[in-house]
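Here is this case:
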Amino acid sequence: MSKPMPVGLPTLVYYPNPEALKEALESGVLFGFVEATIQAPPLNTPAGYIGLLPIRLQGRLSCPGGLYSGFFFQKSSYSP
């Protein structure tokens, strides 16, 4: 825990395009809980898709493909 936990009133931020979001991630501006809609590769891709962003779905851990939403924790580091 290198930074204090986010508490208090949340700050709503909106990134209209992927480039703006990537810039914010690389600069370390984002830290805390994020509500996001994720577009993951479909499960039936030629190489197969291994989910890298697990979510809890109906009491089980799932790594879905396709479009899904949820609350996630964002730390300040980014590595492409």
User: Anything to note?
Assistant: The first helix runs from residue 18 to 27. The two ends are 22 Å apart (CA to CA). The mean pLDDT is 76.
